[in-house]
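Z., the sequence and structure:
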Amino acid sequence: MNITVGLLAHVDAGKTTFAEQLLYHTEAIRSRGRVDHQDTFLDTHEIEKARGITVFADQAEFTYKDARYFLLDTPGHVDFSPEMERCLQVLDYAVVILSAVEGVESHTETLWQLLRQHRIPTLFFINKTDRAGSDPERVLEEIRQLLSGDALLLPEQPEAAWTEETKSFLAEREETLLEPYLEGTLTDSDCRSALRSMVKRGEIFPCMQGSALLDQGVGEFLEVLDALTFTEYDHRLPFAGRVYKIRHDARGTRITYIKALQGVLKNRESLAYGPEAEQTSERITGIRKYNGTAYSAADWAAAGELFAVVGLSSVLPGAGVGALQDAQGSGLIPTLKSKVLFKPPVHLKELMHAFGQLGAEDPSLNVSWDEDLQELHIHVMGGIQLEILEQIVGERFQLKISFGPPEILYKETIAGTVYGCGHFEPLGHYAEVQLMLEGGERESGITFINRCHPDDLAAGYQHQIEQHLLESGHHGLLTGSPLTDLKITLLTGRAHNKHTSGGDFREAAYRALRQGLEQAENLLLEPVYDLKIRIDPDDVGKVMSDIQQAGGRFNPPDITPSKAVITGTVPAASFMNYGVRLAAMTQGKGAMSLRVAGYEPCHKTGAVVEQRNYNKNADPAYSSASIFCAKGEGYAVPWEEAGAHMHIQAASRNGYTVLKRAVPFQREVEGKVQINND
């Protein structure tokens, strides 16, 4: 039986030390390492050793009784949350480590929300019970209040007698146990069997406690893990898997890490990935089974296993492979962007190669090159991530770089519905495009709908327009920020059977998009956080005032004599560094949890637009004007006048705005007027 278990925690909760003990108890390693001694089995990178934190999600393998476990040690720092979230997609069970002193911290709540979103069965281990100030009972109560009321503290030994309180806890949540409990016939065996199923369904969350550093409670936890976890993978079905990590070895070979969800994959077989319409199939040239940094070559990998392959060139984390064709995205979206700073002797080609690899390994970086500004931009979660990236680029690629100050990543969209037209007709070229633009739902990105009839425009040209409009990097008019949450409908278009050539429809489509934006109500969007603050009741007024002044909103606070909890939504720009102010305001007693909650209309659009100082008319990548041809020369028509010059004019029919040919267009070719009705 193959079982994948992920370890998750707020930074410094003792997660890596706990992993060392699990591996030592199961004889997967001969000696236990320590984070402070820089000799742990999983934190092997020099950056991890120097900082004492997990940056990269690494895996180990151990066997206990009749099960083989694949252990994923995930980063605990919030800046590396996307790396952690990618691992969630392949877990069978999760173990959340909490400190018996600090208890439920801000990032713990974010982890919990993600675990419930992915529906992963979860166990808790309250660690560091040996430290001064530890209070496991208080932490258990915090788990029940802040995370789930279905957390159950288990006896240290699974075979120990189940208390009346525990039996009552289970009977309240499992209908089949209620009658025997009331009759007094509920046995320990009944409880264990029911608990096993309830844990798998995510209805009960077992808790245990101990000290990983002193090896207290870890052996007992292993017994519970063995008693409560199970999987049912089918080796007979066609192979299907999920990619959860991309890495490159010292020679630059791309290594794709996969969780096998069903079937068997053999070396030298072809493996398909990508959506059905654009599916890619490549031959596997090697299968590797990793344990820490070491690996062994294998001829096959079976359902339930974690393994890596060589031979896939472009698949990304989250993608399904084989019989699984879907792709899972990330819910943790970076809210900051930064510019990569470099100067000779660093060459652009070397830099693009380095960030090409880093972008494949971490798609959330969203690496992009601005051709006009000659700048390389990345998206990040925070400043610590930039420090780590600077070290990685230096050590791995021997390139000396730095980063500009991180800035808030704004986006733009529109409200309502507008129509845009674009015409591109310099001498020897011809294309015309008519679009309908509508504001889309939040987080919907750019969507494309085709209502163009093939009699008006050949399907090949329609496909070109779709490709160009779905290209990333379209700019809004207010700040030049990325365009999003926009529904684009292709209504019609026009080509010339002789003069239309490659790239003409890109020019026409971009001009139609821009001309539509010029007529729209443009909205600036800013990233916002879901906020949760725990403070003393005396501090409620000050915090609510801060939230209001920062452009946020809050719900009525939940106040008890000992504490108050405030929840709400706040702009990232105002609250990304609020933790320092909160600590000063509450003498270090306040606790804050922030989780990216998407984008909303900016609360200070005017100030941001002024600060960005974007000149829409000077953007070389876009123009709102259309190009027409007369007397053998092309001439520009401003966007507000372009509609009247179009060769296709708008009309209304059946409740939809459609476009129809007004008159055959004329053009001068070699001194003669040519009329074309195509």
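The mean pLDDT is 86. Residues 504-519 form the longest helix (16 residues).

Let me know what you think.
H.
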